[in-house]
Amino acid sequence: MSPRKLGTITIGQAPRADITPILDAALPPALPRQHVGLLDGLDRDAIAHRFGPRPGHPVLVSRLLDGGSVTVDKERAEAVIQERVTQLEDEGCTTILLLCTGRFDQLTTRAAALIEPERILAPSLPALAAGRQVGILVPLAEQIASEGEKWRALERRPIFAAASPYDGDEAPLVAAARSLRDRGAELLMTDCMGFCERHREVAREASGLPVVIANAVIAKLVAEIV
Questions:
Q1: Domains and CATH numbers, the chain
Q2: Where is 179: in which H helix or E strand?
Q3: InterPro entries, from UniProt (predicted)?
Q4: Which residues contact 63 (CB under 8 A, 6 or more apart)?
Q5: What's the average model confidence in pLDDT over 92-104?
Q6: Please, which residues have CB within 8 angstroms of residue 46's CB and are 6 or more apart in sequence?
């Protein structure tokens, strides 16, 4: 059996100062890990040239090393995600974790286990919700249409609100959490790996509802299989 090694891929730039500590707290300390990003080594002009959003096309939002956020075209990003998957497998990673909750249909590996959070969260949420009305927090309003279909297994159609985890202003998150509560949500789910424990506390205090943080769930589950 090959030595175990975890690779992670962020849509932004690696390492992710917001997510890596959550993984480190859950994973075995001795487990080798390697972090890469789609936008590593690129400045904003290069990012805009290669991955700039196109009108009417799905987008993803992620974090740069300077702490700022960036929005990229999802279809253009997917091809580079596959390149990073292949790179990590070539460098000995036996498990590869995508640090993104977006839905992708074309990613493959030769032998490494590829973990796409969407494929875990989407079928798990109905069981966690147990019939309750779910409110979904997304970073960008335009993602409500492009990413909303993945939650179709829920008994009740989810309701959505947008608030970015990357802008440092908690007021939009407070407003979004309260809006979801006032519209009938009984449980909140974050549809972005950038939402962390601080965001859980803000949203929970604002709404009085339980809040499921995507990266916390994934970190705990990955720790069970690496």
A1: 6-118+216-225 (3.40.50), 119-213 (3.40.50.1860)
A2: helix 171-182
A3: Uncharacterised_AroM (IPR010843)
A4: 10, 12, 13, 16, 18, 69, 70, 166, 194
A5: 96
A6: none
